[in-house]
């Protein structure tokens, strides 16, 4: 989550005053993320001020949250209590999720050690297994992956086919920038899409798509008690895709990032019954569908990471 800037503080004061007028005199800012800014209103209730999401699209998100919450999970997930619009900005009132982020960029701590602690890998297995138990729904299939212009499943009946089509679309968005860093890009895209389409059909479950440490909250005993921030790459899909992406993004920039990705990939393949080659294929697909979402050249860390995966 980004640090607070002077502009952020001004906006924060504006919304704190707004919530006070709405009957929450103790409202305070908690955090900002890609989707917006969260304020604690009182015990058990928070408000999210959404950044740039058109209100007419929010009903789908609300149905997504309800579909997930309809299944018993060993941790909390977002639950929307009410929604309103103020000055053209969407505000959702939600149940507060407990615990503390497993790891946060705001902690200022050391990067993860070469050997991830067992508590982290155990927590990841709990989360992956639980999400894989939530079946895919129509609301999930109607979601648009960030950076794209249509629902992922539009025109498709299988997740691998839908993902292959997205790979081809996304690679064309800024093809020249990526090709400058990845020799033989056209062949890589072609082979990746073909390999995806050759995958067998599997039962779909909810895919979070961004299980990074700040999005998993833990209790004092080290158990996951909340998973938040669905939306970046959320859809209905193959649980192996979720495992592959989690192994890839859990530590993208630390000194042992490549080692962690390789170890988690092998670990998830063994413990969850996925084929390791499928996880590697899905990791390449993830690089191709997200490479330009934060920057369009080697100055951006995510772009460099994606290019390195493809090379």
From TrEMBL:
PROSITE patterns: PROTEIN_KINASE_DOM
Matches recorded under InterPro entries: Aminoglycoside_PTrfase, Kinase-like_dom_sf, Prot_kinase_dom
Region (Disordered): 97-117
Residues covered by the Protein kinase domain: 24-311
Domain of life: Bacteria
Name this protein carries in UniProt: Phosphotransferase family protein
